[in-house]
Write a structure and sequence with these properties.
The structure holds 2 protein chains of 2 kinds. Chain A is built from 6 helices and no strands. Chain A is mainly alpha-helical. In chain A, 80% of the residues lie in helices and 0% in strands. Chain B is α+β, with helices and mostly antiparallel strands. Chain B has helices at residues 7-25, 27-65, 77-113, 272-276; strands at residues 118-125, 133-136, 149-152, 155-163, 168-172, 180-184, 190-195, 201-207, 217-220, 232-240, 247-254, 263-267. A 6-stranded antiparallel beta barrel of chain B has the order 1-2-5-4-3-12. Chain B has a 6-stranded antiparallel beta barrel with strand order 6-7-8-11-10-9. Classes of the chains: A mainly alpha, B alpha+beta. At the A-B interface, helix 1, helix 3, helix 4 and helix 6 of A face helix 1, helix 2, strand 1 and strand 5 of B.
């Protein structure tokens, strides 16, 4: 089941990112679902799965972006890995911790993009990119991550509750 | 953390680190390797991409035609419903008419000026916020290759930077990583057109003594790259120059509205006239479609 979900994520997230998300953009900025997915998988399933999901999603994302192929692979892979490593030290994972994790890693990933592949010519350009792309996208990513984490958490609790009820009914 | 990872996981982590080292040490070669390795994966992902694009197109059509018009008052609900129905039909017909008008204009332009060009649909936007790019529904199977120019009847759009079997990625002229040689039509002064982070277009390196003024038309110069001479890029909106600058630069209003592009032409090979004589091309067809609104 897990591999089925991971496969669906790998095949489905990038098409959604390039098509549907344009309709929910704020000031032309869309959330980066690939980053959010990599971080949440890392955060909930550990660094290894976070790294693999991040690398795979980043690699596929690179084919549908005008940037260099390795940048997405690198940023998403590292984000998944760091989220997994961070998640190990969080005693009580809540949507707030997930949001903080996504916010921090989205900013880090944005900084890599900003200084690796963008033609930033002046401090005005830099300031503009920081405000209009990096911080806006990070905030958007964090909000989406909070919602997704809450929904996933609710679903897990619901399934666990059902299983518990069934166990009581049919011991 | 590293000590806690053992067995195959440690091997995969090391492989990842090795891959990263390869990307940083040999960036150009690693691009080729990554491109070849991921080709089949990109082909698989292109299928749901095209499916979702077609689906969202249908939903958008439904939304524009029906749901967005659901501001119905209870008292005249029946009449409203009738109007809605007629409006929906009308919208549908208009959409069909405008689509066929757009396509016939594109086809006419292609047949008149670019018989070698490939007409493609825009099915998505760049998957990150850091690049201004488009995803097209045709790729290597249609003869599209990286570095080919992309245009509309209105003017210059950008260039192809990546291709898979069934899709292509176009970097728009409004992206800072784009550079196209251009000239001011009236004064014949040359410069380089590049995008800005705000998504605008700027003509840089205009000679200091150039009499450029607002409203001047900027066209491609055809000196370098895959773009032929004479393609319209934009109209000068503001001229920028500080005392220390050695050149002037001009902010342009692009002739193409990049946010509303639906179909584009990819120049797969130069026209015979361009190959024989590098001169001005026939004037671009004036078009209201794809042009920014004032």
């Amino acid at each position: 089941m897990k591999f089925l979900i991971y496969g669906a994520l790998l095949v489905g997230i990038v098409p959604i990112q390039t098509t549907i998300l344009g309709h929910v953009s704020i000031a032309g900025i869309r959330p980066d679902l690939c980053l959010v997915t990599a971080v949440l998988v890392g955060f909930t399933r550990g660094p290894f799965e976070g790294l693999l999901m991040g690398v795979s999603l980043g690699y596929i994302q690179g084919f549908f972006s005008a940037g260099q192929l390795g940048i997405n692979l690198f940023t998403k892979g590292i984000a998944g890995l760091l989220a997994g490593a961070g998640g190990k030290y969080v005693a009580n994972a809540t949507p707030v911790t997930a949001v903080a994790m996504v916010l921090g890693l989205s900013i880090l990933s944005g900084v890599v993009f900003l200084f690796s592949d963008r033609a930033v010519e002046s401090s005005t350009d830099l300031f503009q990119a920081l405000w209009s792309i990096l911080l806006l996208q990070s905030a958007y990513d964090a909000v989406v991550a909070g919602i997704v984490y809450r929904v996933i958490g609710f679903r897990i609790r619901k399934v666990q509750g059902l299983e518990h009820s069934f166990a009581r009914l049919f011991p | 953390m590293y000590r806690s990872i053992t067995g195959p996981r440690r091997a995969i982590l090391l492989l990842f680190l090795l891959l990263l080292a390869l990307i940083f040490v040999l960036p150009r070669q690693s691009q080729d390797v990554l491109q070849r390795m991921g080709g089949p994966v990109a082909e698989i992902v292109a299928l749901p991409l095209q499916g979702i694009a077609a689906f969202t197109g249908g939903i958008q059509h439904l939304w524009d035609g029906y749901v967005a018009l659901q501001d119905v008052h209870l008292e005249n609900q029946r009449l409203r419903r009738e109007i809605e129905f007629l409006r929906g039909q009308n919208n549908e017909l208009r959409e069909v008419a405008s689509g066929s008008q757009r396509l016939s204009r594109l086809l006419g332009f292609k047949q008149r000026h670019w018989p070698q060009a490939v007409a493609t649909k825009v099915i998505g936007r760049d998957s990150t916020n850091w690049y201004r790019g488009l995803v097209l529904d045709k790729g290597e199977h249609a003869g599209i290759r990286p570095e080919m120019g992309v245009i509309t009847p209105a003017g210059l759009v950008g260039r192809v930077v990546k291709t898979t079997a069934f899709t292509s990625i176009v970097l728009l002229v409004a992206d800072p990583n784009t550079a196209v040689t251009a000239l001011i039509q009236r004064t014949r002064d040359e410069g380089i057109v590049t995008g800005t982070l705000q998504g605008l277009v700027r003509l840089k390196y205009i000679p200091l003594l150039s009499p450029v003024r607002e409203g001047d038309v900027v066209v491609t110069s055809g000196l370098a790259g895959k773009f032929p001479k004479g393609l319209m890029v934009g109209v000068v909106k503001r001229i920028e120059k500080t005392e220390d600058d050695l050149f002037k630069s001009a902010l342009l209003v692009p002739v193409v509205d990049f946010s509303r592009l639906e179909e584009v032409l990819v120049i797969t090979s130069p026209r015979p006239s361009d190959e024989a004589r590098p001169g001005p091309v026939p004037p671009t067809v004036p078009s209201t479609e794809g042009t920014p609104k004032p």
